[in-house]
Amino acid sequence: MKLLLPDILLVLLAALIMGYDLYRGKVNLNSSKPFHLAWMGLAVIFVVLARLPYDQTVMYPGGYQVTGAALLFKQVFVLSAFFTVLLSQSYFLPNGNYRGTLKHQSEFLCIILLCTFGMFTVVSATDLLTLFVGMELSAIPLYVLSGFYKDDDLSLEASTKYMMMGAASTGLMLFGLSFFYGAAGSVTFAAIAKVCTANPSEPLLRLGVLFVLAAIGFKLTMFPFHMWAPDVYEGAPSPVTAFISVSSKAVAIAFLLILLYGPLAALHSSLQPIILILAAATMTVGNLGAMKQERLRRFMAYSSIAQAGYIVMALAGDAGSARSSVIFYLFVYAAGNYAIFFIMSAIGRNGEEERSGLQGLGKNNPGLAAILMLTAFSLAGIPPLAGFMGKFFLFAAAAKEGYYAMVVFAALNSTISLYYYLLLVKEAYIIQPAEETKALRLDAVQVCSLFLLTAVMLLAGILPSISGDILAVVG
Amino acid sequence: MNGSFLLTMIWAIPFITAVALLPVCRDDHRRIKMISLVGNSLNLLLVIGLTFAFINVSTGHPVAAGAKASQFYFTAQVPWLQMMHIEYNIGVDAISVLMMLLTAIVIFCGVLASWGVEKQAKEFFVLLNVLVAGVYGVFVSVDLFTFFVFYEIAVLPMYLLIGLWGTGKKEYASMKLTLMLVAGSAFILAGILALYFASGLNTFDLQLLSQHHFSPQFQYWVFPIIFVGFGVLGALYPFHTWSPDGHASAPTAVSMLHAGVLMKLGGYGCLRVGMYLLPEGANMWMSFFLVLVTINVLYGAFGAIKQTDLKYITAYSSVSHCGLVLFGFTALTFTGIKGGVLQMISHGLMTALFFCLIGMIYGRTHTRTVSEMGGLMKVMPFLSVAYVIVGLAGLGLPSLSGFVAEANVFVGSFSNPTTLNRICTVLAVLSIVVTAVYVLRAVNGLVNGPIADRFLTLTDASPLEKIPVTILLFCLFGMGILPGWIVDLVNEAVHPIYNNLMR
After folding, report:
1. Could you tell me which chain B residue has the CA closest to the CA of A475?
2. Do B80 and A422 lie within an 8 Å CB cutoff?
3. CB 3.0 to 4.6 Å from B304: which of B10, B53, B316, B452, for a disulfide?
4. Where are the domains of chain B?
């Protein structure tokens, strides 16, 4: 049971936080205890995860399987939830954010935790049903979270839009999975893998792949299914946007990894061109879209679309390098994204979360400006930061299969992305603010989180070997 | 001190200097500048020490005599990332030692020349030191991955250095420069990955890769990718357009360092990665690149004629002179490659001095337009004389460094018997005449003629400013009058590359 410990702890933690609220009654809605409980609990779960052995594959009854890759994905999810919890704190404080104060903190935390549990289920699945249930468990809470500003039109619009899109995607996915079932006569991965190997040109399988790719395209914001992202990211509360941009993407890519290198492995070689075309289109659309965005949440939406493109590109590689590079990249991408969101939350205290809010940062908050610069460079993939290492491994995965032209294309794309990340740096350092700006005030949570994230970005870039587990065990 | 440890120290010291600057109070400009100066003086001494040590070692075991298998000295390997066999793998040959010496001299002078920086001095010197660390890192790397990492570290600080402390169209220029150079490195990255996977050796080690024979088809399409990738930084036509804007907008020390050293990284990469690892590709593509580079040489020279701004004149002349570096390489003869390397050094010294002087003159006259100046010889004789001398070096006057380099380039190029080479050489030699036109015109407008009243009160260089100018002048003369030891060193380093090309 040792390998199931994190999952169990996570559910217990969610129950504890919900129970605390119920037990204390309505009077204590502003208590900060659930918050402390949540982040400490998540930290403990992360430590537990990190100490589990990666080299075992254990199948539990009911088709719940824990592998090394699954454990690493769970680490990504837990870390992402951890930083979302920390990020959300200032949004629940009175005057913590210009846009308004969020209410019902323990409800929020509980939904985050349960959503994370849904993601745990996805990476442990060994049959289509578990996989599907996990995807839904992780998707539905996000619809709720997007509308957490309960009287803000934008937020409600985001929630509705997200739910509609999500419902369409779910329908497509079920439709696609049913083709797999039709071809194999069973929902287990083993049976599907057998059919795929025996008969890779089976049209039912092809149709299934088509629909599943489309469905997961929504979650991963893959071109041409990315259109919802800017609106939802813009409307949702910032911590939720951060959570969607990291966790929801991570689970979608985990889903693809599981299918492509598991049951559908025999189809992989014929899918490579499609994957590359989708990746190329996705990164281009994201990069071109991000250039003109003034509002940071929208900006991050396009930026994360582009990042999804790079990640998908690695799926053209072989199983080992795809897994290790994707997981490594998820860590560094999460670090960069959350750092930007923490800086946004600092801006958001006094004004809209817009790019112009960064003006004067270089003079007033030199430390924060330096972190912004490092983060921007990390997201753009500039050495010696983690983003470069991450992209390097992604590109190497594609290059290993001989897709050098794709590598050139992707690297040029990341040059385009450097343009808009440099706009952030430019705003912070070069542009003179029209009126005198005050130094931004950061609370202890924000300072500590930013410190942690920056340390990750620097360490994983300069000494990638400290993440040896990811690179060696999974590969 | 152990040689390889010395190499690590040389790139680490600027980093340490940058880190040491972080806790210093933001308004204590004097201390910030002193720390930078101390760090870079120390480094200058270390590099000079390295040069002597290198000469000692290499005369003991000449590569050409076969006493040593590798052309790199002071090598050391530390695994960096086991999974892909990425190593922190360092070593130097004569070219890199000389380039490091150049870097050390230029940055030492650059720090002195930017003594006047008042705006956010702390950030300026931190970024400057990071930039220098990157440059040193490139020259000591023998592993392509390490090489690439340092290369990018050297390019990126430029954005803020130009954008924040620059003049004129600085925002446009800094963005253009950064994006073009990073686009170039996108090609390099793809090329490096291609070399890694195609060789099947699972290594980024330059020496191991150089022994592997890549198939001609592979070389045919990877060579241009790598050559163009580095060529962007070497201002290869038509990818040179970042250079005039960037250099004209950059603050003095950054122009010095960028035109003096950073552009040489491009040529260095073309030679070390492109031509050394992919000799057949080089042979297949050279006539194409020869034409481009000839355009470079002529276009830069003619472009400079048209300019009225001193910095733009020098920037265009840099395009022309950096073109000569690549021109020497594309000749594919021993003398040509040697000339290219010499031109890297000569141009580095010359252009650093040019930008240094222009910065000092601009700091006084507050204009860089040639037609608005005149008669400066009366009020600032030292700076004017120095400008005349460096101008003469630019047009290749014997006994100054430019002559040594250009003579080798042109002789080397002409000795390649193909008709195209001969024609291109003749055309490129014409650029010297054009160079004379723009250099003499600028000098004439600057130092002769009537002086405007508002300039009468200007002062000559202060003692602090005279130091960098004197050092650079000394080096220009030194290389022009006693080129022997440099040429010997370069000779030895070019041998392995040339032999690979002729294989």
Report:
1. B83
2. no
3. B316
4. 3-501
